[in-house]
Write a structure and sequence with these properties.
527 residues; alpha/beta; 8-stranded parallel β-barrel; 24 strands; globular
Length: 527
């Protein structure tokens, strides 16, 4: 375990805790991923979500068809246009998810100590005695005594719509289970999770590939959330598939760690993926409760040191039905920030929750407060020590830019980048000030047509803590004469001034390439 990232070196005046926080253009450095669905797909609601701080919109294909999600995406585009807020798109695959389909949507009552049969015969109607599932190999994978969880899709954990089962016996393809708690399964779709059991299904199914090809490719998705990632090979296979789809060769893959199998192969998965999503809902079932915090802290530390974005899920479950989070949830969000999370992912809270906008706003405010007491000095020293010497050229420049910004108390770091890598490396050192990533488009060709890169790189920084992108004019190359660089810098400074991040007499650290050299410079603004 590593020492805390909480900074409370001086005795804090308790009354100061009650002082209202100052308004800021950036609600928080920590990003928020919102899942769009029935309660969050109107232009007004999505616009409000963007203004509240959502920077990545997640489309979960475990439910709803491509046409439904396309309609929501078109609405998102309208909201982006009206709010002038950039937002990235994440496609979440179904993966080897086991589901119980309740076609009639009639509530199913299950009584403690009773029995229920899980069957692969999906023609049967779901009832209190039989639950049809979408996998015919379950009987082969389970033995008596195994634990199974069945809950409403995107369950929050606080509902009475989830049930624990214990396998009593296996009869052919059917699994007979003892019901451990009284519950009512309400809704049309339930997920089924077998604790610490290997499910022999591909991580990227044929249905997933079809969705990626027919929906993901035309919409040029920024992120692919690879559900139930269990091995590094899962990520390699997904990347190979994306590379065949032209525009998706730049799409970043976020490995979703949802079970013990993924946990056991975490290091090699991290090395292969572009980022990690800690799916604490399913992990909380697979792991003993007392081990969940330990995995979170260890996994986030590994992601931070690798410079790869880490996303934490399932933080304010109760806000699905309530306007305020519980005390434990509010503390949990803050601890995720102090542990090093780049982004908080909201699922049921925004998809079917009653208060999607208020949830994003509340989470953003908690993140902003936690960031104020984040021990940046300790974190910086630890990261530099971990990276070791000799540093790579780019790593050296990035760490120097952050150190300079801290020493001169700069209000912002401006980084000129084409690939986004330099800006992400700066963000890796968690500077206490925002990093304005000025993405310079590059001209490329596929022999048939010319096009500019840059939009992908800009949107993909929307999931990185502290990184705020701005797409520059393509007529100004990233590596150029001082004259053209100065004109782009002026645009970036004007953007910073307009947003209230930069004021007169502020100091700004600029990281850019001039010819073959990388330069870190400090500028002080006039009136």
């Amino acid at each position: 375990m590593h020492s805390t990232n909480l900074l409370l070196e001086e005795p804090i005046r308790m009354a100061s805790i009650l002082e209202p926080s100052k308004a800021s253009f950036f609600p928080a450095m920590t990003k928020i991923v919102g899942t769009l669905g029935p309660k969050s797909r109107s232009v007004d609601t999505i616009s409000a979500c963007l203004k509240a701080g959502m920077s990545v919109a997640r489309f979960d294909f475990s439910w709803g068809d491509a046409a439904y999600h396309q309609e929501t995406l078109e609405t998102l585009k309208l909201a982006i246009k009206s709010t002038k807020k950039l937002c990235a798109v994440m496609l979440d695959t179904v993966g080897p998810e086991l589901q119980v389909v309740n076609k009639s949507e009639t509530p199913i009552s299950l009584e403690e100590n009773g029995t229920v049969v899980l069957t692969p015969h999906q023609g049967q109607e779901a009832s209190s005695s039989v639950l049809p599932i979408n996998f015919d190999g379950l009987a082969k994978a389970l033995t008596p005594g195994a634990t199974i969880f069945v809950g409403q899709y995107l369950f929050t954990g606080s509902e009475t719509t989830s049930v624990w089962l214990e396998v009593s016996e296996v009869k052919g393809d059917d699994v007979v289970c003892i019901i451990k708690n009284t519950a009512t399964l309400a809704g049309s779709l339930f997920t089924l999770h077998c604790s610490q059991i290997h499910i022999d299904l591909p991580t990227l199914s044929d249905d997933d590939k079809d969705v990626i090809k027919k929906w993901g490719a035309p919409n040029k998705i920024d992120f692919l959330s690879l559900s139930y990632t269990r091995h590094a090979e899962d990520v390699r296979q997904a990347r190979e598939y994306l590379s065949k789809l032209g525009d998706l060769s730049q799409t970043q893959i976020f490995a979703k760690i949802e079970n013990v199998e993924g946990l056991n192969h975490f290091d090699e998965i991290l090395a292969e993926a572009d980022g990690i999503i800690l799916s604490r809902g399913n992990l909380g079932i697979d792991l003993p409760p007392e081990k969940v915090f330990l995995f979170q802290k260890s996994a986030l530390h590994k992601c931070n040191m690798a410079g790869k974005p880490a996303v934490v899920t399932r933080v304010v479950d109760s806000m699905t039905d309530n306007l305020r989070p519980t005390r434990a949830e509010a503390t949990d969000v803050a601890n995720a920030v102090l542990d090093g999370s780049d982004a908080i992912l909201l699922g049921a809270e925004t998809l079917r929750g009653l208060y999607p906008v208020e949830t994003i706003s509340t989470v953003g405010r908690i993140c902003a407060e936690a960031e104020k007491v984040f021990n940046q000095d300790l974190y910086y020293k630890r990261t530099v020590k971990y990276v070791g010497e000799p540093m790579t050229h780019l790593e050296s420049i990035a760490s120097s830019a952050v150190r300079a910004a801290i020493k001169v108390k700069a209000s912002v770091i401006i980084c000129f980048t084409s690939s986004g890598r330099a800006a992400r490396l700066i963000a890796k050192y968690r500077p206490s000030m925002p990093v304005l990533s000025v993405v310079i488009p590059r001209l490329k060709t596929n022999q048939l047509r010319w096009s500019f890169t840059g939009a992908f790189e800009a949107r993909q920084s929307l999931i990185v803590r502290g990184l705020f992108p701005m797409l520059a004019d393509p007529r100004h190359p990233a590596e150029s004469t001082s004259a053209t660089n100065e004109s782009v810098l002026k645009v970036a400074l004007d953007h910073g001034k307009a947003s209230g991040v930069i004021k007169s007499h502020d100091r700004v650290v600029v990281c850019q390439k001039v010819g073959d050299s990388s330069v870190v410079k400090i500028i002080e603004l006039d009136d």
